[in-house]
Structures are given as structure tokens and as C-alpha cells.
Amino acid sequence: xxxxxxxxxxxxAATGALGAAWPLSAQLTTAQAHAAARNLGATWDPAPFTLxxxxxxxxxxxxxxxxxxxxxxxxxxxxxxxxxxVDWVLATDPELSNKIAQGQTEADASTGHSVxxxxxxxxxxxxxxxxxxxxxxxxxxxxxxxxxxxxxPSVRFASANCQAWHDGFYAAHxxxxxxxxxxVVHLGDYMYEHGQVGGTPIRDHEGPEVHTLTDYRRRHALxxxxxxxxxxxxxxxxxxxxxxxxxxxxxxGTSKPLRKRRAAAYQAWWxxxxxxxxxxxxxxxxxRRMWGDLLELTxxxxxxxxxxxxxxxxxxxxxQQKSWLKSTVDTAPDAWRCWxxxxxxxxxxxxxxxxxxxxxxxxxLAERKEVLTHVHDAGLRDLVVITGDWHSAxxxxxxxxxxxxxxPVIGTEFTAHSVASGAYSPDWNQTNGPIMGKANPHLxxxxxxxxxxxxxxxxxxxxxxxxxxxxxxxxxxxxxSTLTTFHVDRGVAGSYxxxxxxxxxxxxxxx
Length: 511
Ligand SMILES: [Fe+2]
What we know:
Blueprint: H1 5-14, H2 18-21, H3 30-39, E1 53-56, E2 63-68, E3 83-91, E4 99-108, E5 114-119, E6 127-134, E7 137-138, E8 142-145, E9 155-160, H4 171-178, E10 183-186, E11 196-197, E12 200-201, H5 213-223, H6 227-235, E13 237-240, H7 256-272, E14 287-291, E15 295-299, H8 319-330, E16 336-341, H9 365-377, E17 383-387, E18 393-398, E19 411-415, H10 426-439, E20 443-447, E21 451-458, E22 462-470, E23 480-489, E24 495-497, E25 508-509
Parallel strand pairs: 1-13, 9-10, 10-13, 15-16, 16-17, 17-19
Antiparallel strand pairs: 1-2, 2-5, 3-4, 3-6, 6-7, 6-8, 9-21, 11-12, 14-15, 18-19, 18-20, 20-25, 21-22, 22-23, 23-24
Helix pairs in contact: 4-6, 5-7
Fe (ii) ion binds at residues 162, 189, 245, 389, 391, 421.
Pfam families: PhoD, PhoD_N
Domain PhoD-like phosphatase metallophosphatase: 157-466
Domain Phospholipase D N-terminal: 51-146
């Protein structure tokens, strides 16, 4: 085990030395910030491509390539000219000899010297390799893949969510990088605007939270200092949605103070992600993508358009996205449908009434019922929802009316473990697993003592969710194993656990 950043930060907090240990503290010079980050296990690629490379939004004929020039990743300003020419090349071999496309683009200070290159005219279902160069330096090699068309025998992809940098290393991303995958989906909480260690708030500047574009850029750059995260980006194309912590905990709406902060956070997010579009003020996240004829991926944005929670006429989707989602249901192809959903869709009621968290769909009861009733009325089948946010694993039956035990099962929700963000204590999980199970007849499984990611293996006949877990988030090289596997058979609503792993540890399992 190398340096353990979680315990180092906790020890620093306990002795009042967090200001010197936390790399983004205002009191540190840039050189001190980098030293503090390295002391916590951060490394970066050689300048100027310190943050690595990434690809995103793979289609059958194109892909988005990303990098950002940041010679001094934690500096307030980068030692770069206002614009820098960046060359890129894409080929079918890792030596980049069979070049398919190449070009030059400009990295501009106004967008953090980030680079987003949409490459078109590619072949479906094909592996590609790419590299950037600028200022006489080359980036690392990236690997990506376009979407297939037509009939395909299978698709394999992974999801990741909730990666609080101060809470642990990203052994889960090391696992994702090594998996044989078509793509990766990020379910949100890619970075956290706040942090606490040992009960002490982590302070970047005057307060414990980040507010300005510079603040958010430095946080993103620190997160990219985990080499496993850069490896996972370089290994596979990603689809992304987001949750609250990319901006601020549990946010909704556009009040004046929030508007400014949100704009800074959105821009920094866009600058650091392999996403399309050139309007960082309001990135469009929600979209529908096909993976051959086998899988329809519907990416939802549950943050940008929502109202406040617990209103009778509240919305989590916003009017436009809701009608768009309903229309995707009406026009769904004969395929598996996967909703990429940042926060829990299924009801999670407390014993005796009320809900655990109304920031999730439980705070938008009328809209949830409306959407799920629409799914049922339209006869949509083979719906699987993949979810993050909770830092623990759940498997739920989805029903249009969760309060009615006779309401039909119309799909399955898999809520995944977090990459690193702290879950409840083993004691809490042991006590509350059975209580949640009793209060929620649609809840089939709960496990909260572990960290990791999910791998989905989908064929025309069956959907399988493999819960991959790491041994210890304090260890960047922690081994990855499969805790359990759940299956959904095509045409049959509802999931079942693989007999081979049904005896694996969990704090709740419906008999
Ligand atoms: Fe989270």
C-alpha cells in the first residue's frame, strides 16, 4: 500500500494541520500545492497534457476526443499563451501508423485550454487509438471504440459514480481500465465541491466550498491527479451524466447566487469532460444513443432543470425533458432500454412513513408516477435503470405505484456502489438493511459495506449486472472481485440473483 490520502488528511485535521495538507488550500503556493497533492498520492501526466486524454459519446460514425492543457494543474492560471495550437491524430492501430483522421485545433484560455474534437466519418464497431500533441510534446495514447449498427451478440459496459477524492483511492477505476468493455457510463458526483475529513471541513479559500471558475477548475485538476481515473478515461469511451456535487450539495433552481456559481461549475465540468457541444453555460446532457440493435441508452439530466423538492407540482426532469423522455418511450425500438439515472428512482420509504431522501425521485412523487405510468401504458418492456448517488448497492423492482403491492413490475433498478465516497457504517447498514427491506416491498437487495463499480453484460436474451468491489479504498492497488451478479431475462420484468453468488455478504436480501 502506498500513501493513504484519506488517513493522512484525517491525521492532519486532527492536529489542525489540514491547511498545509489539503492541496487546494489558499495558504499554499502552487509549488506547495503540488507537493501536498503528491504527498496524497497524486501524479499527473507530463506537461502540458497533465490531465490525460479521454473520448466520449461514441456513435456509429464518430467520437468526441478530449484533453486539456494544464502544465501546472493546481495553479490559478496556466503558464500558457492565450491560444495554443493542438494537433490530434486518430488511427486503427496503437502505433498510429494507419491514420484515419488528423487535424489541428486551438486550445483557448477562455475555456481553460480544454480541447474537444468531434471526429466524424468513422466506421462502426471499430477500435481506434488517438494522441494529441502541442508545444513539441505528446499526450499519452488513448483508445476508443465506435458504436456498432445492426444485430450484435452482446454489449459490455461499466458504470462508476461518487468519487470523493479525499475519501479514498480510485482502485475501482483501475479495475474499469482493465475490463474488456465497449464503453463506460458515469452516473454523477464525479467531483465534490466540499469535503470533510474527521469532522473538519476542507477549505479551499475562505470557506469549505468552491465557488469560482478557478476553484472548480482546480478541483477537477486535482481529481484527475488520480492515475486510475486517467487510465479509465484513456481505455474506453465514456457517456456522462452528473449529479449535485459537480455544483453544490442537493442544489436545484436558478436563484441569483446559485446562478453564478452554477455557471462556473458547469463550465469547469464541460472543460474537463469528453462531452460534445460548444455552449458550456448549459451543457445538454440528456440524450438517446443506440448500441447496435441491442441496447438503447437514455441518458437523463436530473439536476439542471429540476424544481425544488417536495412540491405538489414539482419536477425533477423539467417540462421539456419529461416530454422528450415520454416520446422516447413511445418510439422505443425493440431492444433493452437502459436509463442512465443519477439518483434513485425507486421509492425508499421509512418505516412509519416518510422517505429517506427527497432529493431523489422520492421528492417528486407526482412526476415519477406520471412517467412510470406512461412507461406501463405504452407497454415498454425490458427497462433497466442504472443509478448512482447512494454510495451503496440496491436492487429494486420498478412499479408505477410503489405504494400498491399489486402494481405491476415494469423494470429493474440497479443502484451501484460508489467508487470512493463514504457510505454508511457497517452498523448502520446491518440495522437498517432489514428495516428498508420491510418498508419497501419492491426492494430486493442491499449491500452498503463495500466500494466499487458495476459491469453490465447484455445479450439479446439476458441482462447481467456484475457488482465489482474493491477490497479497500485506502489501497490504490486493491484487488477487484465480483460480489454478486443479478440477471434480468428478456421479456420478463424483474431480476434474480445468480445462484453462484446468492450466499455473498449483504445486509438485506428478499427471501
Ligand atoms: Fe455522491
